[in-house]
Specification:
single chain, mainly alpha, Serine Threonine Protein Phosphatase 5, Tetratricopeptide repeat, 2 domains, three-stranded antiparallel sheet, two-stranded antiparallel sheet, 5 strands
Amino acid sequence: MWEQHFEFMNIKITMYQLMLLVAIVSLILGYFLAFLPKRAGRGDYPKQSVEKERIISNAAFMKGLNYILSDKRDEAIEEFSRAVAQDTQTVESYMALGNLFRSKGEFERAIRIRQSLILRPHLDAKIKLQALYDLGLDYRMAGLFDRAIKSFNDVLAEDSGHAEAYRQLVQIYEETRDWKQAFQTWQKLAKLTGNEPKNVMAHYHVEMGKVHFEKGELSPARGAYKKALSLDSSCVDAYLHLGDLLLKDKKPKKAINVWRKIIEVAPEMTFLVFGRLARVYSELADLKPVEDFLNECAAKEKDPLARLALGRMFLESGNQPRALDEFRKALELDSGLLEIHRELGLLLLSLENADETLEAYRDLLDHLTPLGADFQCAKCGFESQKLMWRCLQCQEWDTMALHRRKPVLLSLKKSDSEVVPNSEKNQGDRS
């Protein structure tokens, strides 16, 4: 996104350059307009106007802007530093300089600039608030999450309606996996914006439930999953883990009934259940509930993965003819799914059917194509080989969907269908 080019005054600039320029110009105009009403009634407007014209006409400051447009950050830093040296009262130059240091990853220098601004006596309240917010951004980018949280809370103490500070806090709590704080902060933000994303809040409760589950705290985990479903009845992750909990609690039939709900709310996601069903085999003397579930999936969605899972179930129970039949039905639905070819070939080899094995192998070669990404974000196009409930690139929830080919998530020994909200667990500096 930041490398996208735009035409501005017959000059090609990137999105990053445009945003930085807008921020600087906004600071200059905001600073000027903040003083205009105060000065107008006291007869000293001309003096203030002359002072602002002097700032804007400062050669070093203007050169710095030109270098930003040319994406020459080092030269821009040099010019803004010169502008600051010529006039230590030019707040705009300090703000621009801090933003440039942050963009280059020089967070310590950016932080020092914000701190020096905040400590200035008689600093305009709006400028101080912006400096506090920018300081929070500096800390967050540097991985100093505790300090970033304090800065954004300082912003909210001065302006309780600062929506962007709330958004930054939400993202920090997500990155540090503090799901309770993320939920509570989203509630406050929702009161400001009127936008309450039930699906996101449901995911927070699922993540809280997972923490309890890992600790063996089944009762609070169950409560968290049910709370998630009360917020969003289509939350697939909640159904998956509530079923896991019931299975751990030696209630396999109830687990299947919970997973069956996914067929209604998100039939395209039922493949996530198939690996889990393999763990049910050892818990049930009668596999009919599993067979009924998979048949329902296969019939409703014409899902080859459901047929594949059925075949594996029959194979596990020693019914090779039924397994062979299901594998063939799966290939009729999707002849390009490599895992079906693999299972069919292994079964044919075990049956010592050389002719049919050779034919199956020849058919596999005909359908063999390079593999692509398993999942893709519907919003930004980010691709991943693992399903994430939250996109790594655009940070949106519930936007990842199947793409190009379906993943193999049908292990009989363990569930490979575990998905995470974000594959990178940014812990950061908690100092």
